Amino acid sequence: MLGCLRLVMQGTVSLQSVHGKFLSAQPDGRAEWNRDVASTWEYFHIEERQGGKITLKSAHGKYVSAQADGSVQINREAAPPGGWEEFTAELRDNGVVCLKSCHGKYLSAQQNGTAQWNRDHAPRGGWEDIQIVNQGGTGQQQPATTTASMPSYVTVAQAGSPEVNGNYEFMPGKHEN
Known about the structure:
Elements: E1 6-8, E2 12-17, E3 22-25, E4 31-35, E5 44-48, E6 53-58, E7 63-66, E8 72-76, E9 87-91, E10 96-100, E11 106-109, E12 115-119, E13 130-135, E14 142-143, E15 145-147, E16 154-157, E17 164-168
Antiparallel strand pairs: 1-15, 2-13, 3-4, 5-6, 6-9, 7-8, 9-10, 10-13, 11-12, 13-14, 16-17
């Protein structure tokens, strides 16, 4: 069933393509879908918006943006309502989503490692399928859980500690990995 999706996250998430590569936010604003392992540059915070829309904020504090020419940039300081930084997330199964831009194009992972907003439709199993992977405090990569609501805060445990240290709002550059 396709539909709007809101994600519940424990920790930070990364986006993995059907090619097995993670989306990486380069400091200069480029998007590369070519990492075998997710680390800091591959971490994103999902912000819920009205109307079932979401934004993706990188560990550099910049928002993912869908350009009218189909290119992907991760260099926006803000994500205004209705802007190129808001996306519709369509649910597939087991934490897999497709992201659709305000231009009506789906995000796809090209085999050469580029990310593009260039697809008019998103067939199951296609290059538009994105696995949302939880990068929580345990260091274990697990698919994110999907549900009908999303809190603004996530619960995390401090590294090396079995105890939960309370609610923590993701703030790029303000946390340790």
